[in-house]
Automatic annotation (TrEMBL):
SUPFAM superfamilies: Actin-like ATPase domain (SSF53067). This is Uncharacterized protein. It comes from uncultured bacterium contig00062.
Amino acid sequence: MLASDSDFIANNFEVTSGASEPAAYAVCALKHFKCVPKNEKDVFYYGVFDFGGGTTDFDFGLWRLAKDNEEGYSYVIKHFGANGNGDKYLGGENLLERLSFIVFSDPKNLKIMRDKRISFTIPRGERKTFPSLADVINDDSNFARFNMLMMKEALRPFWEKWENYQEKYYQNNIVEVNLYNNDGAPQPETPFTVDLKILEEELDKRIRNVVKQFLFMMTDVMSKQESSKNKIQIFLAGNSCKAKIVKEIFDQECANIQNLFKETLKRKKHRT
């Protein structure tokens, strides 16, 4: 490539901002389900719950045909101001960190860790301090980070609900994990007590909270639209939405929010 070619490319290179990732996902999903605007009356409302490995993001909007005064476009995506909301620390991998922290900090397991001088790290996004665990928490240690990583992998069958995961991986509520102590000495097959009920409750609490946040925000945003009686297509995006518990919680909370949405519309009519 000649220098002049490089200069030409540099001077004419341009990056423009398009649709957000959740909005682009919504359009692709709407097309997949044959929800494509064919005339000016076709307006498709959507909500995207993007539950990834590290974060949870929301997006609400509509998709319609472009109007005559919107030259150069065939379709229009209109956002309702929720893009970017969600939880920047709630994702599948971060949940695994939190579950690992619960297992590590179980009193039954702390004795083993202290005897073997094994340390671990605090989950990302955790704002609390844990003075009583100061001797087993070390965010600056590569060995502690490795131990957190290994515990996450040990709990993955539970999070992803692998086939017969309880019998295969957590017999007698024990999981064995290969770790390192603070001196870098291997600690193979270190046994840890795992209370699956407590872990299940933690998952339910954290996922349910963010699902409620999404649905309440959707109710508020959609009730302010002119055509608020339109159906709302909700899409579960992100790899972590494959977890069975996410769909179960959504089904439960959607049933609850439908009644709230109806009440919100009634109040809106009374005010007008």
